[in-house]
Amino acid sequence: MIVEVNGMERTVEAAPETPLLYVLRNDLGLPGTRFGCGSGQCGACFVLVDGRAMASCDLPISFVAGKKITTIEGLDGEHPVQKALERHQAAQCGYCMSGIIIAAVALLSKNSRPEESEVRAALDKNLCRCGSHNRVVKAILDAR
Q1: What digits encode the pLDDT tens for the residues 4-21?
Q2: What are the backbone angles phi and psi of residue 112, rounded to the nearest 5°?
Q3: Dist. CA 138–CA 119, nearest whole Å
Q4: In sequence order, what are the beta bridge partners of 130?
Q5: pTM higher than 0.90, yes or no?
Q6: What mean pLDDT is predicted for residues 23-52?
Q7: The 8-11 sheet, strands edge to edge
């Protein structure tokens, strides 16, 4: 199967039901997308699929055929959200950050000037156990 990841077409040999997360990490060597809960509930594994933030841990690889996938590596550390999170020193352990960044990028691509309530709603499926969520929200508002 051919998938487009971070602007490059890649050939993967995986069963159609294989979770996208496993293909990204194990077959394509892209470890930035994290395994969290395994059931699409925590947001650690979010990637962009045709610009929409989606949990990759329960998304079969067959679903993304013909779609554009962007992982945290595809942002190259240069996205305004990444820069703002760095300026605000918003991350603690950082485990959830790739998913949070992806969710924020999806939001800002649709709404370049969201209100705080919209940022919080967009991050509702992203769990941060370190308690840095308020700093993250402020950073995303700064990235607008």
Answers
A1: 999 999 999 999 999 999
A2: -75, -10
A3: 9
A4: none
A5: yes
A6: 96
A7: 8-11, 2-5, 68-70, 46-49, 52-55
